[in-house]
Design brief:
Low-confidence stretches: none
Order of helices and strands: HHHEEH
Number of strands: 2
Shape: flat
Structural class: mainly alpha
Strand order of the largest sheet: 1-2
Largest sheet: 2 strands, antiparallel
Length: 109
């Protein structure tokens, strides 16, 4: 198998693993790969992605940003910030839904 084909295969596998919410061992057993292989390819592809970004964005690009002051609404009971994501949680929100959203944001951010 060509290296580019392997990369494509492992990108697909990694995406499947991340969206599965499974433990590494469970996912690997189900797909017939070792956890070492999964970790190796996640690290390898992450490094290549970072190197690609480094090479394509050698000079910073500056843009103007106009920020309006944020005014909280009366209904907001809690503000949760995870990475770049900001989540306003109203009173009475479904706790299971909130837990699911926080889990997804942690994985993405």
């Amino acid at each position: 198998m060509k290296q580019t084909d392997k990369k494509t295969l492992w990108k697909s596998r990694i995406q499947d693993y991340r969206s599965s919410n499974e433990q590494v061992a469970d996912w690997c057993n189900r797909h017939g790969v070792t956890s070492g292989q999964l970790w190796y390819w996640m690290k390898k592809l992450k490094k290549e992605s970072a190197e690609h970004l480094e090479n394509t964005h050698s000079e910073p690009n500056w843009v103007s940003l106009h920020v309006k002051p944020w005014v909280p609404q009366d209904r907001t009971a809690l503000v949760v910030v995870i990475g770049a994501a900001r989540l306003e949680v109203p009173q009475g929100v479904d706790q299971k839904l909130l837990a699911d959203v926080v889990t997804v944001l942690r994985r993405l951010c």
